[in-house]
């Protein structure tokens, strides 16, 4: 029953936090998608295997979309969002050590499930916290922030490899930023409604 206009949302910390979290999340995701094959090749993995790993990420991510879409209807959505980001973090840690070949399995499972689940929960949070009157505008702004992160992430990853000859430093930077993203996600506050039906912007 909550309906928040775009002008009100722009004044709320919750909306700001969502934009920051999405920027960092997509910064990581697009960087991995762009550089996963060069990275795996750089640690000695055959190109064919690297291609199979790249193809498996979105396929396993489908399970995350269905699973966390279902869980988001049962449990608090911000907690589910935090869980998906946590899965991406542990996936990034596993990615940093794929020179040990067995680490590719936890990377694929954790990272892919987190990526797929976070895509679903993002829109669900916007709808639940702000309503649907300005849903399209708000989601568009959030996806715009995500696009900015998606531009920065691959550029940083390429710079890391050109500078240090390794992607590992930037993978650590990304999971560190995602850790901050979990904190911001847990600070998300739904809008409270007074008995006289006036909206209280509790997240200001």
How would you describe what is shown here?
- By secondary structure, the chain is mainly alpha-helical.
- It has seven helices and two strands, in the order H-H-H-H-H-H-H-E-E.
- A two-stranded antiparallel ribbon has the order 1-2.
- Helix 2 runs antiparallel to helix 3 and helix 6 packs antiparallel against helix 7.
- The longest helix is centred in the N-terminal third of the chain and has 30 residues.
- The two termini are 19 Å apart.
Mean pLDDT: 88
Low-confidence stretches: 193-204
Helix content: over 70%
Strand order of the largest sheet: 1-2
Structural class: mainly alpha
The number of strands is 2
Beta-strand residue percentage = under 5%
Number of helical regions: 7
The global form is globular
Largest sheet: 2 strands, antiparallel
Assembly classification: single chain
H and E string: HHHHHHHEE
Radius of gyration over alpha carbons? 18 Å
Distance between the termini: 19 Å
Can I get a quick summary?
The protein is mainly α and 204 residues long. It has helices at residues 6-9, 13-42, 47-72, 77-95, 104-130, 135-164, 168-186, and strands spanning 192-193, 199-200.
Index terms:
about 200 residues, two-stranded antiparallel ribbon, about 75% helix, globular
List the helices and strands and how they pair.
Blueprint: H1 6-9, H2 13-42, H3 47-72, H4 77-95, H5 104-130, H6 135-164, H7 168-186, E1 192-193, E2 199-200
Antiparallel strand pairs: 1-2
Helix pairs in contact: 2-3, 2-6, 2-7, 3-5, 4-5, 4-7, 6-7
